[in-house]
Design goal:
By secondary structure, the protein is an alpha/beta fold. Helix 1 (about 10-20) runs antiparallel to helix 13 (about 305-315). The chain is globular and about 65 Å long. The strands form 3 sheets. It has a 6-stranded mixed sheet, sandwiched between helices. Helix 2 (about 85-100) links the parallel strand 4 (about 65-70) and strand 5 (about 105-110). Helices cover about 45% and strands about 15% of the residues. It starts with 7 loop residues before the first helix and ends in an 18-residue tail after the last helix. It folds into 2 domains: about 10-25 and about 270-335, Lyase 2-enoyl-coa Hydratase, Chain  A, domain 2 (Orthogonal Bundle); about 55-265, 2-enoyl-CoA Hydratase, Chain A, domain 1 (Alpha-Beta Complex), CATH 3.90.226. It has helices at about 10-20, 85-100, 120-125, 130-135, 135-160, 175-180, 210-215, 220-230, 235-240, 250-265, 270-285, 290-300, 305-315, and strands spanning about 40-45, 50, 60-65, 65-70, 105-110, 165-170, 170-175, 185-190, 195, 235, 245-250.
Length: about 325
C-alpha cells in the first residue's frame, strides 16, 4: 500500500489554484458611486482613527480594531436631523468607506431616542437668496429636486459603503430615522424602540428612502398600512415582520450583541464581505439571472486567491485569519 504524506500547504495551493483557474481575472468592475460632498481623510493610530477635516456637530466617531462606531451625538435634542446632519453623515461615512481600515460600521445613538426625524427648524427657514426669489416656478422646482436628490444621497451613503452597516436602535425612530435604518444592512432594537413613517402626518410622501427600501425588508401590505396611516409600530412588531433581527432588554445588551456580530464579521475576508453586500444590493433591483451573471463577473474580477489561501490555512491551523485591508479608494486626480 502506498503511503501519501499530508501536506496542508500543498493541499491549499491545489484547491485555490483550481478555483482561481476557473475564476480568472477577465473583468474589471468600476463603481459608479459619486458623492455630492467633499470626502474626509483619516489619521491612523494604534487603536483609533479620527477624521480631522470636519468638526462634527451631530456625530461622534471612533475606530477600534476594524469596527467604526458612529453615534448620533445630539441625544438631548432627540438626535433630530439638522441641516448640518445632511452634510456630516455622508462626509463621515464616505470617509470611512474610502479609507478601508474599517470592516464594519456600527451606527448607534446617544440618549433615550435613536432619531426623532427632521429638525422642525428646517421647515421654517424661508428662502432668502435673490436669484431664487426672482426665479420662475419651473426653475425653483428644478432646484428643489436637486436638493431632494442630495438629501437622498445622505441616506444612500450607508447602503453604498463598502462594508456592512449595523444599526442599533433605542427609543424613537421616526421619519428620517426610518429612512436611515432602512439603508443599513443589519438592524437591532431595544424593547422600548418604536418606529413611525412620520411624513404622512405632515402632509408629505416620504422621499429619501423609506418607501423604496422598506418593501424589500417587510411585507409590502404592512409597509403600505404604516405609510398610509403614520401610526407607530413597536420593536416587537418590527421583529415579527423582519425589520429588525433581534430585540434586547437594554441598550447596553444591544450594543454588546452588535459589537459581537461586528467582530465576527471583521474576522472574514473584507473583500468577500464587500462583494456580498454589493451583490445582495444589486439583486434587489434585478432578476435572478442578471444577479447570477453579476456575481460570476464580480468573483472573477476580484480574484479571491490570496484570501482563500488565508481562510483555508487559518482553519487548518485553528487560528484567526489575517486578511489584508481593502485598499483606500483614491480619487482620479489625487496624487
Amino acid at each position: 500500500m502506498r503511503v501519501v504524506s499530508w501536506n496542508p500547504s500543498a493541499f491549499i495551493a491545489y484547491v485555490v489554484g483550481a478555483i482561481s483557474t476557473y475564476y480568472s481575472p477577465v473583468f474589471y468592475y468600476a463603481s459608479n458611486h459619486r458623492s455630492n460632498f467633499i470626502h474626509g481623510y483619516l489619521l491612523a493610530g494604534e487603536e483609533t482613527i479620527k477624521i480631522i477635516t470636519m468638526d462634527y456637530t451631530c456625530f461622534n466617531f471612533e475606530l477600534k480594531g476594524h469596527i467604526a462606531h458612529v453615534s448620533l451625538s445630539r441625544g438631548k435634542q432627540l438626535n433630530t436631523m439638522t441641516k448640518a446632519f445632511w452634510s456630516e453623515l455622508p462626509h463621515l461615512i464616505d470617509s470611512i468607506s474610502d479609507q478601508g481600515d474599517a470592516r464594519v460600521i456600527l451606527l448607534s445613538a446617544e440618549g433615550k431616542h435613536f432619531c426623532a426625524g427632521m429638525d422642525l427648524a428646517n421647515f421654517t427657514e424661508g428662502e432668502t437668496k435673490k436669484d431664487s426669489l426672482k426665479a420662475n416656478l419651473g426653475r425653483k422646482n428644478e432646484a428643489s429636486y436637486r436638493v431632494t436628490r442630495d438629501l437622498q444621497y445622505t441616506i444612500s451613503c450607508l447602503e453604498k459603503a463598502r462594508m456592512p452597516v449595523i444599526a442599533a436602535i433605542q427609543g424613537a425612530c421616526i421619519g428620517g430615522g426610518v429612512d436611515m435604518v432602512s439603508a443599513c444592512d443589519i438592524r437591532y432594537a431595544t424593547n422600548d424602540a418604536f418606529f413611525c413613517i412620520q411624513e404622512i402626518n405632515i402632509g408629505l410622501a416620504a422621499d429619501v428612502g423609506t418607501l423604496q427600501r422598506l418593501p424589500h425588508l417587510m411585507p409590502e401590505g404592512v409597509v403600505r398600512e404604516l405609510a398610509f396611516t403614520g401610526r407607530r409600530f413597536s420593536a416587537k412588531e418590527a421583529l415579527e415582520h423582519g425589520l429588525v433581527n433581534s430585540v434586547f432588554d437594554s441598550q447596553a445588551d444591544m450594543i454588546d450583541h452588535a459589537e459581537s456580530v461586528a467582530t465576527e464579521i471583521t474576522n472574514k475576508s473584507p473583500l468577500a464581505i464587500s462583494g456580498i453586500k454589493e451583490v445582495i444590493n444589486y439583486n434587489r433591483d434585478h432578476s435572478i439571472e442578471e444577479s447570477l451573471n453579476y456575481v460570476a463577473l464580480w468573483n472573477t474580477a476580484m480574484n479571491f486567491t490570496d484570501d482563500m489561501k488565508e481562510a483555508f490555512k487559518s482553519q487548518l491551523e485553528e487560528k484567526d485569519p489575517q486578511f489584508e485591508k481593502i485598499l483606500k479608494k483614491t480619487k482620479y486626480l489625487e496624487d
